[in-house]
Amino acid sequence: MKPEPKRVKFKLNGREIEAAEGSLVIDAAREQGVEIPHYCYHPALGNPGNCRLCIVDVEGAPKPMVSCRLPVKEGLAVRSDTEAVKRAQASSLELHLINHPLDCPVCDQAGECGLQDFYMKFGRYESQMREDKLHKRKRTVIGPHVVLDQERCVLCTRCTRFTEQVSETHELGIFGRGHKEYIDLAPGKRLDNPYSGNVIDICPVGALTELDFRFKVRVWYLDMTDSVCPNCARGCSISVHANTKRPWHNDGRRVARIKPRYNPQVNGYWLCDEGRFGFKHLDENRLGRVMRLKSPRKEFGWDAALGEIAGEIRRLSGDRGGKGLAVIASGALSNKDWTAFKGLFVDTLKVKHFLFGPEPDQIGEQDELLRRREKVPNLQGGEALGFGGSIKSESWESLAREIESDRIWGLYIVDRDAAQVWGERGRKLWDRLSLVVYQGIHKDKSSELAHYRLPATAYVEEEGHFTNFEGVVQGYRKALEPVGQARPDWMIFSALREKLAGFPVSEAALS
Ligand code: SF4
Ligand code: SF4
């Protein structure tokens, strides 16, 4: 383990403070609530010191210095609040804005722009600019997710450093000389890598904006909720930005965008594009009604539906001794869902046939940065309760064979498209089953073929915890109201368990 850095005392704006020796003054100041403006410095991308905005006065130094390259040491004394510093910061800002277009009323970055914010806090100078502004290329789509406006760029190089140091894909570069420098794609390249969306977050101005989000909603209308990405076993910390008041501005979608939340234990500052843009299906094809789909088809309330399903389970497990119920689930359940799942299917129903492994339908690409091959967030939560340990997962093939040899009378599917995985064979398997219950979020083949359909909430409509592949437990909060009658999975499992009070029937009937 690395030894903790020594703590030293130094003076900031006349106040003695403590910080790690060798840390940067700009970071030490932020920890104390003192904001020093900057564009080029980013804690994960280094400190080229080219924007010249973070200047401070240093006692004993003949000229101001940039605080993003100034290490803390014992006895150092700096000031970020002198008239000289304020004048220097305003002059640097004026330089950045010389050729910046007056786009604010039509710029999608308005409301979260580093130029707007710093001008109001540190600028407010009288413009000396009389010449025409230099024009560069506007509104260029440079990849599947990103739009570039060269005129708005302040040449901080954060985006080029990201493609060099983090994604290592080298699509972006600075071209030209002097005041004619501009940001652009390298010849023959497109900004099309699995992490491309991060340049939108780190661009401090409106030069790189999100293709899908542009002009859908002003940022001050968004509600922001802490959450966890459910799209792979990493479980990156995210913020869900919802547009509940004006979803029609956003193609009817209530979630407008997903942004990363800094978490040094899990994802640092970054997100992959799959996670960032993987929310668009949330409002599409949703299950909203509790339904009996077998004849006579019926919509009903939760109590009646679960009572009827519990009655069917009792009848079938009594009548069809020697056969069993099988349950298909996935690592998309929260920790609380897994506990209720175990209570219902293991403790009460003594189910012997489970399928919860991610292969083959929940497997995807993995890399060294964030993405994990298991495209579900919480296999670990299930493992903690014995799923994958003492409770084994069937394979799709072995479960199909069990059904074909008449050893299964019913199937309870939790948010997994079994019919899709089984393909042609699925229809014949269904015909052999006396009861198929589908509990899930979206309409899919299995939800159409089930005898009962129970709508569950998506992660943005509930709160809970996921345990990621490294054992980090993170909570996510409710951002939206559920669709229709949808309920959290744990609530459905618990209510059905109550309806089954008095179980188990004989072991022979259930095995
Ligand atoms: S496009 Fe944005 S991030 Fe890239 S250099 Fe320009 S201002 Fe910086
Ligand atoms: S790496 Fe996984 S958890 Fe992180 S954003 Fe991508 S899909 Fe989501």
Structure description:
By secondary structure, the chain is α+β, with helices and mostly antiparallel strands. The protein is built from 15 helices and 22 strands. The chain has helices at 25-31, 83-97, 114-123, 158-166, 198-202, 273-276, 302-319, 335-348, 379-383, 396-404, 418-422, 424-431, 445-449, 489-499, 507-510; strands at 7-12, 15-20, 55-58, 65-66, 77-79, 140-141, 146-148, 172-175, 182-185, 208-210, 223-228, 237-242, 255-260, 291-292, 298-299, 324-328, 353-355, 408-414, 435-440, 452-455, 464-467, 473-476. The strands form six sheets. Strands 15-14-20-19-18-16-17 form a seven-stranded mixed sheet, sandwiched between helices. Strand 14 and strand 15 (298-299) form a beta hairpin. Helix 2 runs antiparallel to helix 3 (114-123) and helix 7 (302-319) crosses helix 14. The two termini are 51 Å apart. The structure holds iron/sulfur cluster (2 copies). The site of one iron/sulfur cluster (SF4) has 13 residues, from helix 6.
What is the topological layout?
Layout: E1 7-12, E2 15-20, H1 25-31, E3 55-58, E4 65-66, E5 77-79, H2 83-97, H3 114-123, E6 140-141, E7 146-148, H4 158-166, E8 172-175, E9 182-185, H5 198-202, E10 208-210, E11 223-228, E12 237-242, E13 255-260, H6 273-276, E14 291-292, E15 298-299, H7 302-319, E16 324-328, H8 335-348, E17 353-355, H9 379-383, H10 396-404, E18 408-414, H11 418-422, H12 424-431, E19 435-440, H13 445-449, E20 452-455, E21 464-467, E22 473-476, H14 489-499, H15 507-510
Parallel strand pairs: 1-5, 16-17, 16-18, 18-19, 19-20
Antiparallel strand pairs: 1-2, 3-4, 3-5, 6-7, 7-10, 8-9, 11-12, 12-13, 14-15, 14-20, 21-22
Helix pairs in contact: 2-3, 7-14, 8-14
Bound molecules: iron/sulfur cluster (2 copies).
